């Protein structure tokens, strides 16, 4: 008899867990079912920047998780043979206008690059050199280039991983499910029992755990971005991602497409409407860097719901009171970077059991539950 494992949530954490449950040794003994509603999913609405090394955050556990996550993604992209429209190591440029801030950033870059070879080559660039690397910019700012930086298309990434896992041991079911008081999964086709359940439900984790009498300290945050057409740059495939100081990020997708994002709207919570104010704010940022953009250049707007904890740290692991259930949430604004590693750790634990020590990556899971 194969062991039955369920995953609730088909964002980057759930899809990565499904992928590793179909590739790690022991996968032959598993039958995996993934349930995903998809409404408001953060992963498919995300901007797609992978560049944790020069973050201003001082949280050491988060940095370790994000840096190891960026490295795992490089490996996963090769292993799963992902196309360049799914994951591309384009490099990233982080700008600073104040010379003192710039020299601090450069010192940090040198220190971090010495510690982590996957950060790749680093360069200090003048405003003109930034423009040379990203020709669609009408205005440059001095910055630091990091060749290990990448962009990822969350929706395509998830799709690719689920397709590959479906060829091995995964069944995907679309639609919303709930838990009953005993922790079994209630689906439209009845109550289902599994040997283990991985709940990767992002901002919706509190709803799912409510029937178990558990409260989770996770709050939703609305995020919006826009995708624009930049007609003159149809021939360009790879340009670095620009992370300008005090402005929205600019992510050239190649072939004359550009993403600008994203907003952070705590009041918006689970609201999925595209608002005029957010669109204006994003377009304004885009126009300050790229000439000739108008409202008509906007091809698409996306909205998703991020999950945040009080200390902005993700959490993941086995629920102490319900040992068959593993959870992850709170990935915030950097979940495309940390999600695949969290998915892999959860998949490994579901297969091999035990109580791994993840203290280098996260605080005690109990901090987030009451
Ligand atoms: C606008 C925006 C821009 C972003 N940009 C970046 C970026 O550039 N770089 C970066 O690293 N991160 C970025 N992020 C953050 C990143 O997208 C998230 O942290 C990450 O995708 C969270 O992944 P997840 O799998 O935990 O949750 P999600 O992707 O939200 O997936 C959770 C899934 O669970 C499903 N679900 C929930 N409840 C149920 C249920 N009861 N039954 C069935 N299914 C259920 C949901 O429908 C959803 O599909 C961005 C986010 C947003 C919104």
UniProtKB/TrEMBL annotation:
GO cellular component: cytoplasm
Gene Ontology terms, MF aspect: oxidoreductase activity
Entry cofactors: FAD
This protein's UniProt keywords: Flavoprotein, Oxidoreductase
TM helices/strands, residue ranges: none
PANTHER family xref list: D-AMINO ACID DEHYDROGENASE, SARCOSINE DEHYDROGENASE-RELATED
Protein name, per record: Oxidoreductase
Organism: Secundilactobacillus collinoides (Lactobacillus collinoides)
